[in-house]
Amino acid sequence: MRIGQISSAALMLSGLAGVLVPRRVADALDLTVNSPRGSAEVRAGLGGTYAALGAWALTSPHPAAETAVGTAWLGAAAARLASLPADRPKTPWPFWAYLAAEITLGSAALISARRRPRVDPRRRVCSADDGEHAPV
After folding, report:
1. Residue 105 gets which letter from DSSP?
2. Which of 6, 13, 70, 94 shows its CA 20 to 30 Å from the CA of 56?
């Protein structure tokens, strides 16, 4: 299993948690869900979006899928860091653990995508950096 697949699976599983147990996910993130609409938004925004992106990256032969996963993780990390001066949030250990996971999983996905063979859609083959070709 490639490290990018681990990152994609983690994103997909975190999304599935958002879909299946939105209130628990919201509580873990210190979000308040006090209406059915709030639960629906957690399911969609923190659940379905990430579950779909992670699942796509797990099943796609295209390196761009892992690039998208890595960018999503690193975008979350950047927003988390930007929140420090902007929002001055409480920062108990889970805040820092999430940041570390976002940076680690995002970097892993980008590294994996860079090492992955590129797919030539015209020829339906993957080409590695060494010039080898394999059917998709």
Report:
1. H
2. 94
Phi-psi region of 33 (alpha: psi -120 to 50; beta: other; left: phi over 0): beta
Interval 65-108: pLDDT, tens: 999 999 999 999 999 999 999 999 999 999 999 999 999 999 99
**pTM flag (> 0.90):** no
In total, the chain counts a number of residues equal to: 136
3-state secondary structure of 31: coil
Question: What Cα–Cα distance (Å) separates residue 72 from each residue in 18, 37, 75?
Answer: 16, 24, 5
Dist CA 13 CA 10 (whole Å)? 5
CA distance 112 to 66: 7
CA distance 8 to 88: 30
Please state, in angstroms and rounded to a whole number, the distance separating the CA atoms of residues 21 and 14: 10
What is the domain partition of the chain in residue ranges? 3-135
Contact by Cβ (8 Å): 56, 109: no
Token pair of 99 as six digits:
């940041």
Least confident range of 31-45, 47-61, 69-83, 116-130: 116-130
